[in-house]
Structures are given as structure tokens and as C-alpha cells.
Inverse folding.
């Protein structure tokens, strides 16, 4: 089964990471070298995330490549808050 994940779902997952890691959208936009409006479009599914975005998000949130891949490509992946540690988990 080749299920594609929507831009809107990826945006929801990134929003979850922002909340968990307490990083503002302004900071993320600056790190991604995009305007706040462009980031908002990406987070709301109205614009695509690029491979460059993937690499920047990996670095900002200090994610493993596998976790980043899950966020961008696995339709069943969930972002959830950990009690003792901020992390993305399947």
C-alpha cells in the first residue's frame, strides 16, 4: 500500500514539535530562511515542505533521520509529549 501523507498532516506534526520543544514559529521561520507567512502556509498544508526544510527541521529539533522520515512519510506516525523527555515517538 502506497499511502501518501498530506501537507496538512505534516504541518500538524511540525506544530506538535514546536509545542513540545517550545520553539516559536518566528524562530522556525528564521531558521528555515522563509517568511512567517510562508511558514504558516506550509504548516496549514497550503504549501509544500521541501527536502531542505526536512534537513533544517531535523537539525532544529535534533531529530534522528529515521524520526524525521517518519514525520514526513509515515501516515500512521504520532507526535506525543513524553513525561521526562521531549521526543517524537511512534
Amino acid at each position: 500500500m502506497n499511502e501518501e501523507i498530506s501537507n496538512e498532516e505534516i504541518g500538524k506534526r511540525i506544530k506538535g514539535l514546536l509545542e513540545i520543544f517550545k520553539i516559536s514559529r518566528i524562530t522556525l521561520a528564521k531558521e528555515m530562511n522563509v517568511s512567517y507567512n510562508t511558514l504558516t502556509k506550509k504548516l496549514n498544508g497550503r504549501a509544500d515542505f521541501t527536502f531542505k526544510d526536512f534537513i533544517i527541521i531535523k537539525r532544529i529539533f535534533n531529530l534522528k533521520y529515521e524520526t524525521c522520515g517518519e514525520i514526513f512519510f509515515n501516515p500512521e506516525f504520532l507526535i506525543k509529549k513524553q513525561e521526562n523527555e521531549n521526543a517524537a515517538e511512534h
